[in-house]
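Sample intake sheet
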Amino acid sequence: MSIGVAEGTVTFDDVMGASERVRVLARVTPVHTSRLFNEASGTQAFFKCENFQRGGAFKIRGATNFMAALSGEERQRGIVTSSSGNHAQAVAIAAAHFGVAATIVMPSDAPKAKMESTRRYGPKIVQFDRQRENRDQIARQIAEETGAITLPAYDHPWVIAGQATAAFEMLREVGELDAIVVPLGGGGLLSGTLVTAKTFNPKLRVFGVEPELANDWFQSLNAGNPVQIAPPATLADGLRTPVPGKVTFPLVQSMAEGVLLVTEEEIKATVRFLLTRMKMLVEPSGAVAAAAVLYGKLPRGIGTVGVLITGGNVDLDVLATICGEAEPQSA
């Protein structure tokens, strides 16, 4: 079953509450800067480094907030979720902490590092073919058959409020910014960032960033309604959601300034830059916001920018291929 919460009801009070609840598992991650990145991008960038988060990604925030909000009776039913990796691992960690049985629907082509890290925490994993099967339908069927609670990867106010705590921490530490850029998959992180950012400063400019090959949000915002695309072939596996969420779409539509697009080559080059120049291991999905800044996708006039680095879980063979496509640049 699904927990019923009114669509779109995410407030800054929800974020404040989540900031207390997520402390049982989520770390306060560092904010880094880089002179070399600033020189290359023409901005002053502040990186919120969720690649150093528990589980290697920001997803532990939303999973923890959701699990903490459940009643004891609801936890006894167990939970079911679907994810290509980072959310799966976050749910597995949170479920183990709260003593909740978890079933996780994962694509058979999920990165090996994410699959094995998830399996380590003991959930039941159900694999599917993303080209022929629908993960949400599989999860719904499991929930109906078992009575488990559905824990959405992004499309729920409790998850959104949990993800928002990353921007909350960054803004408390950094202070005034001209803009924030956020990787955009299902829209949970961007929605939460928008609620938080607009509370701190209504004039703060907030952008989502998608791969060109996974541009469902770009198309949807231009159309004025959610547009579904075919399963995208982007290297950014965490951003392969084919359609915006029902809860996240109106939040993003009403508050975000726009969606920026980056190419596969720009994503890979940014992964290399972050690794060789800043000594940070960042997965392709986690690097798209930095790519948009590095490759001049922001409008003119933006000087200081907060950049959400959302994860660092990448298979070593994928990283080797990315790094092998160009000679690494020395610092």
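Comment: The longest strand covers residues 205-211. Strands lie at 31-32, 44-49, 79-82, 102-107, 124-128, 149-150, 179-183, 205-211, 258-262, 304-309.
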